[in-house]
């Protein structure tokens, strides 16, 4: 049996101190960190980008199949992804947690192990937070702060007609990973003696439990002196996000099914569930890839990065938002691209 220390033994201040005592600030912009009434940040003339995301047990995560370390890591990464989606560099995070007495000090150590692993990997400082008890379950709210050279931030609403639509990485993996985890959970609940075999699906399950934010893509833009005309991260699914860019930019779009970035692992895993990989790529959420548009003139630069796919282009608004299938049929893109494809 592993040790279990009740949080009540440390108390709120003891727990905060325990969880934050080893912080070593990495950024010159982090002037005052944990331990005062507020943090002080100096971005030295750059603009500040700020975002917040909440994760609620039973709504956004299920601790039956989410290790606490992964949860800590993911709760940071999903926020950093939003900062990168503005073409900015994240520098600080603030971590707010509410925990019930179901959780021990050791459990919070595991969670913070994931938080600090993400902080180190992405070069951000944890500079504050708040800690509360909760009647039931675990609630996490992370605020991420970043910096951007004035006017280099990229919004969703500034795509131009004729711009190329681009996606990083591959899509649909996290969704299929979730299907596996939910299936194994159900089998386990019916018969706890059966040990889940998730090894063979480690890619898609990893996409769900341990997503990464596309820091490398933002660095690539910087290196190539490329500023996308619009950008957002893909948290709800490609269809839903492309509709946001189109609507907010007041344009239409055309994307091609054959150009969608679909990985071998996701395709094979989707077939095991007898679902269409294209539908997973269009509607599956939580991949945290970047969706962005670039001017046609930047096409040559985009081809330098193997991990970026051009999937279509922006059109006149009158054109609507459309997908052209491999069979050359045209369908309107809906937020559930899923069902549209089931129709004959
Ligand atoms: P206050 O009473 O001013 O809200 P707290 O006692 O809540 O202060 O917090 C003390 C310090 O610890 C502050 O710097 C706060 O930002 C930080 N902090 C509190 N909870 C957390 C947490 N869960 N993770 C990281 N830092 C935290
Ligand atoms: Mg407080």
Fraction of residues in helix = 25-40%
Q: How many β-strand runs?
A: 13
Looking at the chains present, what oligomeric state does this protein adopt?
Answer: single chain
Task: State the distance separating the first and last CA atoms.
Answer: 56 Å
**Which structural class fits the helix and strand makeup?**
alpha+beta
Structure description:
The radius of gyration is 21 Å and the shape is globular. α1 runs parallel beside α3 (105-122), α2 runs parallel beside α3 and α4 (173-190) crosses α5 (202-209). The chain has helices spanning 7-20, 68-84, 105-122, 173-190, 202-209, 215-223, 238-249, 264-272, 277-283, 299-302, 337-342, and strands spanning 30-32, 40-41, 47-56, 89-99, 125-133, 139-148, 164-168, 230-234, 252-256, 289-294, 308-315, 321-324, 330-332. The chain is built from 11 helices and 13 strands. The chain has 344 residues and is α+β, with helices and mostly antiparallel strands. Adenosine-5'-diphosphate binds next to α1, β4 and β5.
Sum this structure up briefly.
The chain has about 350 residues and is an alpha+beta fold.
List keywords for this structure.
binds adenosine-5'-diphosphate, 344 residues, alpha+beta, seven-stranded mixed sheet, single chain, binds magnesium ion
Topology at a glance:
Layout: H1 7-20, E1 30-32, E2 40-41, E3 47-56, H2 68-84, E4 89-99, H3 105-122, E5 125-133, E6 139-148, E7 164-168, H4 173-190, H5 202-209, H6 215-223, E8 230-234, H7 238-249, E9 252-256, H8 264-272, H9 277-283, E10 289-294, H10 299-302, E11 308-315, E12 321-324, E13 330-332, H11 337-342
Parallel strand pairs: 4-5, 9-12
Antiparallel strand pairs: 1-2, 3-6, 4-6, 7-10, 7-11, 8-10, 9-11, 12-13
Helix pairs in contact: 1-3, 2-3, 4-5
The structure holds adenosine-5'-diphosphate and magnesium ion (MG).
Adenosine-5'-diphosphate is lined by residues 13, 16, 19-20, 34-37, 95, 97, 126, 128-131.
